[in-house]
Amino acid sequence: MQESIIELSGLFISAFISSTVAPGGSEAVLAYMVSVARYPNGQLLIVATLGNTLGAMTTWGLGVLAAKRFPVSSLLSEKKQKALAFVKKRGLWTLYFSWLPLVGDALCFAGGWLNLPWLPALLVISLGKMSRYAAVVWLFV
Length: 141
Fold this sequence. Notes:
Blueprint: H1 2-18, H2 26-36, H3 41-69, H4 78-90, H5 104-113, H6 118-140
Helix pairs in contact: 1-2, 1-3, 2-3, 2-6, 3-5, 3-6, 4-5
């Protein structure tokens, strides 16, 4: 029992870290856990999605805080300025692509910076994260 809590917590932490500014390999952890088949795939999908979504919402929250403290977009890095312009032009559904490597964190940050509605942002980000992890589960079953 305790071993399963540790293993699932490891997946959650890996997914959380992978969705913040630190690089991580949550897909590899999930693929391994699916391939050894110790846990139901649905449970693994939920744990990975929750961790990754919470990490993304942390980045989103940092965007909200940064916008309050530094309201001038010229203070942002070029990558974040591009993400900000993209999200501003295309809207909330761009956050679906928050699972993409390199640009996903910037999209979440931009969504927070633009003060997009919290609950819809959470739902769109979750949907994107779950879609990506569902593809990983499907590939490694």
